[in-house]
Design brief:
Elements lengths: L7 H11 L13 E6 L3 H4 L10 H4 L1 H13 L3 E7 L5 H4 L1 H5 L3 H11 L19 E5 L12 H7 L4 E7 L1 H14 L3 E10 L3 H14 L2 E3 L1 H19 L1
Length: about 240
């Protein structure tokens, strides 16, 4: 698991700007979505992955715990699958221009629908009532390349918990866009995975300073349970 290191000066800056270290601790569990980004064989399975991140395997227990807590407190779980289709070669030509041909071929092989690489990691606790969403860019919230924002709004969900891999690419891209699409956004510190602690922590710091909140798995679950209990008490 990553060693989380958020400098105190960063926390102090957040408190000075927002008045609290955790501006979304009052989240409404019934309006909360767990977003699990790219925990697919194409990033996690030896011999199949085009961009292997071994740390992604380590966060699976935390993601499963979060999924269970979100469902139990009235929220919803979304499994995001990074997806390649042939239109990407033209519409996202800049990506492929920056990538060696053999690397592009491996990405196409492991990210195309119907391949082993495209499948979700087998140890994830995916339930029938969860939702799977394809995305065709790094961000799961980029209009035109994912239906996720529209689905969330249609279901009355306004808060998103970002987990998955890799922290500093698809997860941070999704988190930043989620905030700019007006969702309350929390990156889960031990529910995201990168290739190094440095990349992981840098991404969390960048996001936390300006875009949203960061919490550990246990902090998120505590907020979900406490706020759900409060809502039940208020309704009695």
């Amino acid at each position: 698991m990553h060693e989380i290191a958020i400098p105190q000066r960063v926390v102090d800056s957040v408190v000075a700007r927002r008045g609290t270290a955790h501006p979304f601790a009052d989240l409404d569990p019934s309006k909360t979505a767990l977003i699990v980004v790219d925990l697919q064989n194409g990033f996690m399975m030896d011999g199949v992955a085009h961009a292997l991140c071994t740390m992604a395997r380590e966060i699976v227990p935390n993601v499963n715990k979060l999924a269970s807590a979100v469902r139990a407190t009235g929220g919803q779980v979304f499994w995001i699958q990074n997806t390649h289709d042939e239109s990407c070669l033209e519409s996202w030509s800049n990506l492929h221009a920056m990538t060696l041909p053999e690397k592009t071929a491996k990405r196409v092989e492991s990210m195309s629908e119907g391949t082993v690489g495209h499948d979700l990691w087998a140890d994830l606790d995916v339930k029938l009532n969860d939702t799977k969403v394809f995305k065709y860019r790094y961000s799961a919230f980029l209009p035109g390349y994912s239906d996720l924002p529209d689905i969330l709004r249609a279901r009355g969900l306004d808060t998103v918990l970002i987990t998955g891999t890799v922290t500093n690419v698809c997860c941070e891209s999704s988190a930043r866009d989620a905030m700019m699409m007006n969702f309350k956004t929390i990156m889960v510190t031990d529910g995201n995975a990168a290739n190094t602690d440095e990349e992981h922590n840098s991404s969390l710091v960048n996001f936390y300073l300006t875009f949203g909140d960061i919490m550990s798995t246990e902090e998120v679950i505590d907020c979900l349970n406490k706020n759900a209990a409060g809502a039940r008490s208020a309704a009695e």
